[in-house]
Amino acid sequence: xxxxxxxxxxxxxxxxxxxxxxxxxxxxxxxxxxxxxxxxxxxxxxxxxxxxxxxxxxxxxxxxxxxxxxxxxxxxxxxxxxxxxxxxxxxxxxxxxxxxxxxxxxxxxxxxxxxxxxxxxxxxxxxxxxxxxxxxxxxxxxxxxxxxxxxxxxxxxxxxxxxxxxxxxxxxxxxxxxxxxxxxxxxxxxxxxxxxxxxxxxxxxxxxxxxxxxxxxxxxxxxxxx
Length: 226
Hints:
Layout: H1 7-58, E1 124-125, H2 138-148, H3 153-158, E2 162-170, E3 176-183, H4 189-198, E4 206-208, E5 211-223
Parallel strand pairs: 1-5
Antiparallel strand pairs: 2-3, 2-5, 4-5
């Protein structure tokens, strides 16, 4: 006689059976999932392959465009209007002698000589009947020169002093011209003396036989250190 299994043994057998069924179901699900992925991969490869084929079909051959030649520009024709002179207009007759004898002498044209006028410089007198004078006399002349002289710095530093003689011409209108150095002492004193003489106001001109003339004149300019 078969031995009766206890209720506890029956419960363990049922648990074991459920575990086996669960393993079988899990394996089945894993297998289905693997097959599904393989199927998707095959479809993806096929779609990419089809896409490449489509791209190859859509390629269009590039053709070189023909260069367009510039069309010539039409230049409007210029028309020249001619003025018609009526026959009634009178014209002067020109007497042209085309027949010339070889023995006939033809005078050559000689241009007139241009005579340049010589500018005669007025004579400069050394001594005249009435000598030129500074307004106010020689005292005012020395006062003017002394008040306008600026002692040069170089001459002051080197101790240069003395007299500078300057010559000039008093013109008939009393102005001063032809200022020149007659004797100098250097150190910038010569240039300073000539500068002051050139700045002199107009003089009373010298006269010869009652007529104002050019007169040569000279004065000393003193430089003295104090």
